[in-house]
Design goal:
The protein is an all-alpha fold. The chain is 67% helix and 0% strand. The chain is built from five helices and no strands. It is rod-shaped and about 105 Å long. It starts with 21 loop residues before the first helix and ends with a helix. The mean pLDDT is 82.
Length: 171
């Protein structure tokens, strides 16, 4: 006679991961981990639940992918920060160069009774004449290169301060 320890049943379910996107990997990995950690209710076979185990080779592959993506994201964040700092330095140096070049004009306006607000508005108008169309061209190019992904909140949260800083750069 057979006992329950002599019986082994193995089910295999083929997985087609072709449609899996990177943003879905964490959810699938979590679901597979939970499934392996706690066997789901088995209905009439519930008494055998303690001897049932669920495993998947896909879980280790997804875990490796998530670890690699976290490492790559860290490197990309460092690169992004260095680009932002370099861009801010370039904008600051360019603003200083413009201020030095226009020092005579600004001194004359100030000597003739121009207020600091008037000078700031004059400089902001000049910056807007250059930065405004450049920002619009950059946004248009981004929309052309990545259509459908133009509503990213992070993208706007990063682009708006850059335009504001460019317009408000010191004269």
């Amino acid at each position: 006679a057979f006992s329950s320890s002599d019986l082994t049943v193995q089910w295999q379910f083929p997985v087609n991961a072709d449609g899996l996107r990177a943003r879905q990997v964490a959810a699938v990995h979590g679901a597979l981990t939970r499934l392996a950690a706690a066997t789901p209710p088995m209905g009439t076979m519930d008494p055998a639940r303690t001897t049932v185990s669920v495993s998947s080779a896909l879980n280790s592959v997804l875990g490796t992918f998530l670890d690699t993506r976290a490492s790559v994201d860290t490197v990309l964040a460092l690169l992004f920060v260095s680009l932002v700092v370099t861009g801010a330095a370039v904008i600051t140096i360019a603003a200083r160069m413009v201020a030095v070049r226009r020092a005579g004009e600004l001194s004359l306006i100030r000597a003739r009774g121009g207020s600091l607000v008037q000078i700031a508005l004059l400089m902001a108008g000049g910056a807007a004449a250059v930065a405004g169309p450049a920002a619009a061209a950059g946004a248009g190019l981004a929309a052309a290169v990545r259509p459908g992904n133009f509503s990213s909140a992070l993208g706007w949260a990063l682009a708006i301060p850059v335009v504001v800083i460019a317009l408000a750069a010191p004269p």
